[in-house]
Amino acid sequence: MDYIAVQLVDIKEAQQKLSELRGEYWLQEVVFSFQWWFLLISMLLIGLLWLRIVDRKMLRGITLYGVITLGIVMFLDVFGAELVLWDYPAMVLPWGSRIIFINMIISIVYMLLYQCFPAWNRFILASAVTALIFAFVLEPLAIYMNIYEPYTWEHIYSFPIYILLPIIIKWVVDKIYLIERTNQEKMN
Q1: What is the distance between the alpha carbons of residues 84 and 22, in angstroms, rounded to a whole number?
Q2: In the beta sheet, which residues pair with residue 87?
Q3: Which of 115, 157, 158, 176 is deepest in the core (most CB within 10 A)?
Q4: DSSP 87
Q5: pLDDT one-digit tens code per residue, 104-147
């Protein structure tokens, strides 16, 4: 078997070709399709709903929670797509986190959980119910709508991630606020 050395320039050329293919596919198959409009309108409606009901007194903490959530969800999304665990036949934008609008919707839903369920026991229960809905209702719906296509990924794999993600992020954000409060009390 001959060994062929892969160089950075080869990866760059493949990436350029992939980027071109994604752009062409998006222009020919996705942009202005039903799925494209569905994703765009869903994000706008959920974003507007969030703006109307967000507790402005908790805005800093809720926003911190949302930014951390979005960062992690985007990382996991891109990581899974790069490993060819899943892909997205329909996306709002063809590059980067191609399903950014769904990632933003997930973040908004988790921000609402953080706002509405400050007590840990209710937050954990709400996270479990949300995980059930995300993994076993919305993921199959996204498949049916041709927005999401799992290759080697199963809904059951998503379920614990959807539970643990909001819980871990709540713990981190609460810890940050505890550290901040403790330091403010020391200064007084």
Answers
A1: 15
A2: 149
A3: 158
A4: E
A5: 999 999 999 999 999 999 999 999 999 999 999 999 999 999 99
